[in-house]
């Protein structure tokens, strides 16, 4: 019980601290909160695919971040090569809805099939050896990371959002980036709702839920479980790809993003519990908010501790694991 | 580790003695070579391949110790050795960091103590998690340590700490690589023997029991999380020595040297060598540092796909092939070849001998993962 009481007190202290800071300047508070929530939306899209694959197949796809980054590069390259869009204001043409949407769809689908290919070739025949599969996907991510540097270079690029979209929207009396707030958060909500409905209401979802609990039984009942696995891997990779294009537009496409977003997915699912969609949502929000609050509010008088913000992520993970070793919504395998 | 070794009577008689002699001759030759290496190989090979393989091997040994005796595959070793390296580098005279000007030997001891304590803390956090969860939590630890040192400019920042003072014993490893080589060699030997000894103590035996069946050990009254946390502390101690050696080796430490790539490299070394045999650590490290050096010279350009700069691709492909073909690594491959030879030499061909499935057993076994 002791850790729970301690953590409760810690939580209260954090809320009081943020409340105190917020009362000093509400405008900044809302902007910081929105930063956290929009980041959380992106984390959710990445982590939902990761947790879906794990929940059903017990495969920890350590190449998930590589799929994310590869999608960003594919979309960026298509936007440049097919539509002449570039971030250079002088020579490039601004992006339109079509020249943003078409690369997005193609990159997402390509990554979806790439994921299925990876699963069929490398993971299908060693089902159940979860550690070996993790090592295999790590090897793939090492190769992909190096090849992406070779083919796309080491400079940070960004995918251009359609020029017809407004730069910002007014919200709660503040102006905030349209793409982050409307497109990314909207996409996360739609995806979350669709996944929730698909898992709770459709036959495919029913099979997935049954498969999570006992895949041998499901396949004994006549379901082609291999097909279901391929389908789940397709959707999981698809989500990584979609998030890659969204993130590439919202932030940047650059080397290192693969491991950064793999880590974010890991932390999200460690907090939320592997295989749980609701856990991924809660974990994303927790991680996003902690990141953005710590970046701004970790100042005590003249002591600027914002450099230590990353430690708060660590404390968050430790705090959750101390109380629930399998994460908030995790269940034993 | 469920290494199903065929019983010795199988290879009794002349064959067995012959093989034992071969083995001792091989070990003797290895000892002679390692002791005399500075006069056998040129100083470039000594520093760039042998010394590097020794300290990378120690880092990988800390991982292999945890995986083979504790059933814990940890990606946190890089984070822990970084804590040791950065602690020491901040305490001595150096460019960057706190440069507190401590005596290098005292700073080294402090670095090892801090990293070991950090390891016990991490072990306490991760000790109730198993298998793939453990892997992810320890990866998170490594990455968080990376971001910590990258962001905290008073302790390091992205530039890192350069010109770190080494003890007089080491001197300048660039001018004279021999002392550091011997220090790394002695450290490796002591760590190898120390871990082998630890495995036979009551603590080591309990740890192996926990690896094979945590629930049963719990029922027998053992404090399972405590044993795992302490084992992680032992692993951290070994890793911290690798961290100290790495700083002496390069005379600097920066977040770039402890990033995810390095974390994965240590894992690659352990897996290529053999995750379930301690010797594998140094074998994997030797393969790694050899390829690291020579692929940058002889690798031809194949479009954008391969070339002198594509070391990570080459090592990644080797890693992939090893994991696909033989998760027991090179040691596992060697052992299965050796085993086949033994069986061929065996006087009676016994059909019922179990094949040596070091690899699949260890991976399939729920407790070993």
Would you give an account of this structure?
The complex is a heterodimer of chains A (333) and B (369). With 333 residues, chain A is mostly helical. Chain A has a single domain (21-323), classed as ABC transporter involved in vitamin B12 uptake, BtuC (Orthogonal Bundle). Chain A is built from twelve helices and four strands. Chain A has helices at residues 2-24, 26-57, 64-83, 97-123, 130-152, 178-201, 203-213, 215-220, 225-250, 257-272, 277-297, 309-323; strands at residues 168-171, 174-177, 299-300, 303-304. In chain A, the strands form two sheets. Chain A has a two-stranded antiparallel ribbon. In chain A, strands 3-4 form a two-stranded antiparallel ribbon. In chain A, strand 1 and strand 2 (174-177) form a beta hairpin. Chain B has 369 residues and is mainly alpha-helical. Chain B has one domain (8-368): Orthogonal Bundle (ABC transporter involved in vitamin B12 uptake, BtuC), CATH 1.10.3470. In chain B, 68% of the residues lie in helices and 0% in strands. Chain B is built from 14 helices and no strands. Chain B has helices spanning 14-40, 43-70, 77-91, 104-126, 131-151, 178-198, 202-212, 214-219, 224-250, 260-273, 279-298, 311-325, 329-345, 358-364. In chain B, helix 2 (43-70) runs antiparallel to helix 9 (224-250) and helix 3 packs across helix 9. The longest helix of chain B is centred in the first third of the chain and has 28 residues, at 43-70. The radius of gyration of chain B is 21 Å and the shape is globular. Chain B starts with 13 loop residues before the first helix and ends in a 5-residue tail after the last helix. The model of chain B is unreliable at 1-13 and 349-369 (pLDDT under 50). The A-B interface holds A 58, 60, 122, 128-132, 134-136, 138-140, 142-143, 145-147, 150-151, 259, 263, 266-267, 269-270, 274, 307-311, 313-314, 317-318, 321-322, 325-326 and B 73, 125-126, 128-129, 131-133, 135-137, 139-141, 143-144, 147-148, 151-154, 259-261, 264, 267-268, 271, 304-305, 307, 309-313, 315-317, 319-320, 323-324, 327, 360, 363-364, 369.
